[in-house]
Design a protein that fits this description.
The complex is a heterodimer.
Chain A: H1 4-7, H2 15-31, H3 42-54, H4 58-70, H5 74-87, H6 99-103, H7 112-123, E1 126-128, H8 138-150, H9 154-177, H10 183-196
Helix pairs in contact in A: 2-8, 3-4, 8-9
Chain B: H1 7-18, H2 23-27, E1 34-36, E2 49-55, E3 64-70, E4 73-79, H3 92-95, H4 97-101, E5 111-113, E6 122-124, H5 127-145, E7 150-154, H6 160-169, E8 173-175, H7 177-194, E9 209-213, H8 223-234, E10 238-242, E11 255-257, H9 264-278, H10 283-289, E12 290-291, H11 293-300, H12 305-312, H13 316-329, E13 333-335, H14 347-361, H15 392-395, H16 397-400, H17 413-422, E14 430-434, H18 438-441, H19 445-453, E15 457-462, E16 474-477, E17 488-492, E18 501-506, H20 520-530, H21 542-551, H22 557-562, E19 566-570, E20 591-592, H23 596-600, E21 620-625, H24 639-644, E22 650-653, H25 654-660, E23 667-672, E24 682-687, E25 694-698, E26 726-727, E27 734-735, E28 740-745, E29 748-750
Parallel strand pairs in B: 7-8, 7-14, 9-10, 9-13, 10-11, 12-20, 14-15, 15-16, 21-25, 22-24
Antiparallel strand pairs in B: 2-3, 3-4, 5-6, 5-16, 17-18, 18-19, 21-28, 23-24, 23-28, 26-27, 28-29
Helix pairs in contact in B: 5-20, 7-14, 9-12, 9-13, 9-14, 12-13, 17-19
Amino acid sequence: MEMKGDSHKHKTVEPDESESLADIFAFLALLVRYPDISFFDNEFLDTLEILLTRLNLEKSCLKISIWRNSVEDPLLDAQLEYTRLFINAVPHVIAPPYASVYQDGDFSLQGKTTEKIRNFYRQHGFDVVVSTQPADHIQFELEFLSYIYRQGQFDVGDYFLSTFFVPWFEKFLQKISEELRHPLYRVSLQLITYFVKEEQ
Amino acid sequence: MAMNLTRRNLLKTASLAAASVPLSKVVAKAETGIAKVPLIPPGSFKKTKTVTGGVCEMCFWRCQLVGKVRDNRLIKLEGNPKSIDNGLNLCARGNSGIKLVYDPDRLKYPMKNIGKRGAPKWKKISWEEALDTCAAKLQATIDKYGPKGIGVWYHGASAHYPTAYFEYLGVPNMYEPAFYQCRGQTAMAMMQTLGFVPNEDVDMANSKAMLLVGCHLGENIHLSHVKNFLKGLENGSKLVVVDPRFSASAAKAHIWVKIKPGTDTAFLLGLMNYMLGKGCYNKSFVDKHCLGLNKLKTHVAEWSIEKTAKECDIPGKQIVEVAELLCEHAPHVAVHPGRHAAWYGNDFQRVRANACLTALLGAIDCPGGIVQIKRMSTGHVHWPKVEHEEDPEDMALAEMEEKYPFRPPGTPPELMRETMVTGKPYPIKSMVIWGTNSIKTMPNQEETMKALANMDFIMVTDVSPTDITMWADILLPEACYLERYDHIEKGTQWNQSDKPQQFVAARMPLVEPMFERKDSVWMINELARRMGHEKDIPVKNQEEFVDHMLKEADLSIAKLRKLDGIYIQEGESPYLKKGDEPEFGTDSGKIELYSEAMDDEDFPPLPTYTRTEEPPKGYARMIYGRSPVHTFNRTANNAWLSREVPENPLWLNDESAKKMGIKDGDRVSLENQAGKRSAGSTVVKVTPGIRKDCVFIAHGFGTFNPAMTVGYNKGIDDNSLNTKINREGETGISGMRINFVRIIKNGKTINIPG
């Protein structure tokens, strides 16, 4: 596979920007990870609200704030919605968050795309450490981007986004759109879209 | 947000805006799933390995296979080159196993239903919580009602260890549809008559003639069995197919007997009467090995050619032609015992007639006949025997009610279901459902739902979110057949006239299970620990479970791995050698044409025909069968198979269709005699290849759990229309081909002319 990131000299990036973008992508990865008590707490949701405010996404921030105040247990509420959207549900799982499901033509996990994505991680010195999850889970792809940006490899990140991430993410968004009623996931996916969108 | 920003600028602006947000503290809390690793050169993982030890479970024939695995990802399945059974071949389903492993709809984590049974809302929970809950709930049932308060419905190799545990607990009622809705009568009636269960060990490859009554080989593709069948045809064996429908087998037949549904027993009695009258049966065999010939002769005497022809609605000369063909080639005649026998509710008698006909031809343990194949033996894993306050054998419902003396192992399903509803003779309040979609297997679905609603607790283990999983309180995700150890497959070379060989293959995983799927040994041991039975656990894990069974054959997983998954040794021919006498495991040691045991239990001691109900005017009998690329509902969600055969066309007689104004390809649904309508619809296949008094549809379609996104609502669920059943007294098994349908097209009900 020819890699743009390998064949071109990396653009110089200011260290601060690299760090903060890396943090953003790590945070985005948490938004699409199964919510558990290890990270999903008030501080996490407070941080989400602050981030939305700083990005001038006040309406989204308000949605999150109203949701947090309207449910008894935001963690449980988020877990149920995560299960419904991404794991198993009745009437059916809404949108499995794996690239191969959208890219390989036969609605399957562990497809050719999974292999390509995993190889890409490895060629840049990373790998999935949780062997029971396919490598093309949205969470892992965002974590990978976080690591890459932290290393200042913007070209590699951009190449990964345009070649691997955005093409399936768009289809995934389409599939999920009608069912995307929950404020947390509506805002989370809006936020991811914001950071991965193509040049305008 | 300014729209003219480039991505770089946007990111820059955004990141600077975010720089003041305390993200790093939050993101540091959770460990990432990605980590830095030493640089791996491109191409390092390109190498594809061949992993041996797979035993297929896409159906129950269990072909031996290998997997092509790259970077822990299963890429392709192939027949194990070492196999002397299926060989290099796999069927469409076998090939599509990959689509089961990687089906995104599959169950991934333990779940708790925080909604309602039948309309669940799932919460992902930990194994800890799931098992704690199951143990506490099952224990509560035992404390209140005794072990008899628990019922088990199960299927498949992965249920062996769990059912052994529930036996140890003293649970008296377990039901397996593989017996009660499928092979039960065939096994029990053959046992009662011949003293052994031939299963489908029929030497078709070396036969001179074959008789299939209602079997449609080629539509049910069991690889080595179909090879066996086709070899017979290739060798010039004359095939007789008795079927109301021009099935795949009928299409290969020399004689197709287009019989009226429900009259097969009469046909078999007519054949026997002709043979006995003409004296063209195998006299030396019958004199030596059979009991009750004269009684049988008198009993079948009423079945003249004329009477049989009239009853079965077939030409008399065809009966003569079949009888003479079979006699001419006796004993080298493959009279197939059949598999699924639960047709009309008088099926034990039909299988007995089939066995008696086989005996009259002497077609046993000789080339072309039913053969007692000699397989290697392996061991079993047992939990220790413990004394229970109430003996589970005495508490079994059928035993208590003194019913169904010739039943297969376990409790007849409807008997258990009635008890779940009424609480009589005692309450059953917790259900364990292991790998069986009982909503689809048991007729009269409303009753099943009513029974489930009445439970205090329901634990379901499965691979996929099948319909029954919607009724679980706790739902446990199981590793599938390509991800676990369990079944030991034993057999011989597929053609009995080839050099005799025996093989043993154990199911071994080709890939690791993903997500939090577990095998049944792990699940049951964890449950047993929580229920205070740790000291009695017989094996530590699935590997030990398999090794324990293999030990009897002086084998182990390690040895099998070295042998590419299959151990092969010299075998023994099933054909009797000159001077050898066959052995029959009946009470008398002989083939019992007349059965004392049946007489003692007040059942007809000689195979007896009972008329089945006729379709009411305007309706046709709904008969069902299989689609060659599906295993009932089990493969409904398989993307590849569903693409090949997405639904189950309704076979309708061409002349009837013309009168009804229905054309080939029209979309219709069905309504049964009780006014029950099918939820889904299907296309019509207009054909002269089916009688006017019946319609045909393949079983297993019309999935109603939308969680099965591929199979959901495709085709018609025939079982939803089986609202009427006829339970036979011998076994407690219900016949299901006694439901009648008419057609609905564009909302209009159309009668089917008889």
